[in-house]
Every structure is written in C-alpha cells, then in structure tokens.
Amino acid sequence: MSRGPGRVERSIKAAFDAEPTRIFTTEHLCSRVYAGATMIEKKHRVSLIRAAKRVLQREHHWRMTRTHMTGAPFLFFNSTVNESADIAGPQGLRHMSEESDRHPLLADAERH
Fold first, then answer.
1. What are phi and psi of 99, to 5 degrees?
2. Are the C-beta atoms of 9 and 54 separated by less than 8 Å?
3. Are 26 and 48 a contacting pair, CB within 8 Å?
4. Residue numbers of the domain that contains 41
5. What is the pLDDT of residue 12?
6. What is the pLDDT of residue 8?
7. How far apart are CA 64 and CA 39, in angstroms?
8. Number of domains into which the chain is organized
9. For residue 25, what are the β-bridge partners?
C-alpha cells in the first residue's frame, strides 16, 4: 500500500503551487528539491523526472515538454496560464518571449 507522495513529489508540487506562472527547468527543480546536495548528478535528475511525472498525473493543468537547451532536457509549465512567463533555470530567470525567439520548441510550448 502506498504511503502517498514522497519528499521529492511534495517538493515539486510546492514549487508548482508557489509559482504557478513560472516555467521550471529540470536543473532548477533539482536545485530546489536537493538543496543540500553539493553537485546535481544524473541520479538526482532521473529521480526528479520520475517524481514529476507522478505529480503531473495528479496536477492535470501542468505539462512537461522536452527541449534542446543545454542542461535542461525538460520544461514544466502550467498550461492554464496565458500570459508571458519566466523560465527558472540554472542561469536564473529569463523571459519566455526572449527564449522563444532563439528556441523554436519553446515557442511551441508557449502556444499549448
């Protein structure tokens, strides 16, 4: 019998709830979930993506898309937000409109 969402799932959900207009990268979520880790490794990213998929099953308005950005293979975004959003990544915050010019796949994510 399941004991409910684990620590990683609860941390991801808390990030989504705290900033519903933000677009999160895998690296940014890892830095929030694994704040005590000295270095984010592949095992952290794999665990986070697995937990995020479970969160997305419960949170139907959140989506995940794959990108070609260096260090951020996935973006997590709220599909109900129609306004311009900020991307929270390892280099800090960037505006969605600036990034969609350089990355066509982000423009697709913005339309959905």
1. -75, -35
2. yes
3. yes
4. 7-111
5. 97
6. 95
7. 24
8. 1
9. 75
